[in-house]
Design a protein that fits this description.
By secondary structure, the protein is an alpha/beta fold. The chain is 34% helix and 22% strand. It folds into two domains: 9-264, Spore Coat Polysaccharide Biosynthesis Protein SpsA, Chain A (Alpha-Beta Complex); 265-299, no CATH class. The N and C termini lie far apart (61 Å). The structure holds 1-O-phosphono-alpha-D-glucopyranose. Residues 113, 133, 135-136, 173-174, 194, 206-209, 233-235, 264 line the site of 1-O-phosphono-alpha-D-glucopyranose.
């Protein structure tokens, strides 16, 4: 394999139980929660497609059938909309099925993010690939994934995305210790720690949910022991690759300064929906003035 193998595959872990959103997620995958009028997962698959990743493997689990149904065609619905002449809705439902080839594999026993990525080993094979976490939405005006793919092709290693957060917020993320690479638009990762206490964090650079990985990560994951939360952590495998020389070694980070919407907990999910709705041409013009008067009426 050469480091310039074109990257076409994306892995989207989607086996999480979504307990933060109960009871909404009792019978529905959290990935299907609507962000304005599209399920959160569709934003992520669309982002992968825009970056040229047309082969998507979703790592799912029990009670996730709705994901497969959503990305499948419904000929009877399409025919009804066509008959009614509702071309706009027809276009929007066809969008979800035209995003690429979506494959599914089940992570029978969810043992952490690292384990979910390892489930993709056979499908991915010996090529670099992307991992997109469904809780993070990246604004389509900010081209993060394409930049990361480009850095992977130039370095031949693995690439993460990091974002500056308030120091006390770092315990919700992987934290990266990085150093500059002269003349480059990326940095080199020296150390990674999964969800450190703020006083133990090497920096306030938080790992966000986009990765472009060298396939060497699989062999490392196979022997990565459970870490934080007794789960097999992707962060721990990348920490090992960061200090490795030669084929598959080296981890680099793109520092993201664009717009990221976290849909992983209730409060940030609500903020994401409101922010994205304000930006929409069909909703923003009425929503923005209403929001202003609503806010003015708050104590
Ligand atoms: C995962 C990773 C963590 C990363 C985060 C980004 O954690 O383990 O390193 O910072 O995603 O969203 P999770 O949020 O799944 O607990």
């Amino acid at each position: 394999m050469s480091s310039s193998t074109r990257i076409t595959k994306a892995v989207i872990p989607a086996a999480g139980l979504g307990t933060r959103f109960l009871p909404a997620t009792k019978a529905m995958p959290k990935e299907m929660l609507p962000v304005v009028d599209e399920p959160a997962i569709q934003y992520v698959v669309a982002e992968a497609a825009r970056a040229g990743l047309s082969d998507v493997l979703m790592v799912t689990g029990r009670s996730k059938r709705a994901l497969e149904d959503h990305f499948d065609r419904v000929p009877s619905l399409e025919a009804t909309l066509a008959e009614k002449g509702d071309t706009e809705k027809l276009r929007r439902i066809q969008q979800a099925t035209a995003l690429g080839d979506i494959h599914y594999i089940r992570q029978g026993d969810p043992r952490g993010l690292g384990h979910a990525v390892l489930c993709a080993k056979l499908h991915v094979g010996n090529e670099p690939f992307a991992v997109l976490l469904g809780d993070d939405l990246i604004d389509e005006r900010d081209e993060l994934l394409r930049t990361m793919i480009d850095v992977q092709q130039r370095t031949g290693g693995s690439v993460i995305a990091v974002m500056e957060v308030e120091p006390e917020a770092i315990s919700a993320y992987g934290a990266a210790d990085v150093e500059e690479v002269e003349g480059e638009d990326y940095v080199r990762v020296k150390k990674l720690v999964e969800k450190p206490a703020p006083e133990e964090a090497p920096s306030n650079l938080a790992v966000i949910g986009r990765y472009v990985l060298h396939p060497a990560v699989f062999e490392v994951l196979e022997r990565t022991a459970p870490g934080r939360g007794n789960e097999i952590q992707l962060t721990d495998a990348l920490e090992e690759l960061a200090t490795r020389d030669g084929e598959g070694g080296g981890v680099y980070a793109v520092v993201f300064r664009g717009r990221r919407y976290d849909t992983g907990d209730k409060l940030s999910y609500i903020k994401a929906v409101v922010t994205l709705a304000c930006d929409r041409g069909d909703l923003g013009p009425e929503l923005r003035p209403w929001l202003k008067s609503f806010v003015a009426g708050l104590d």
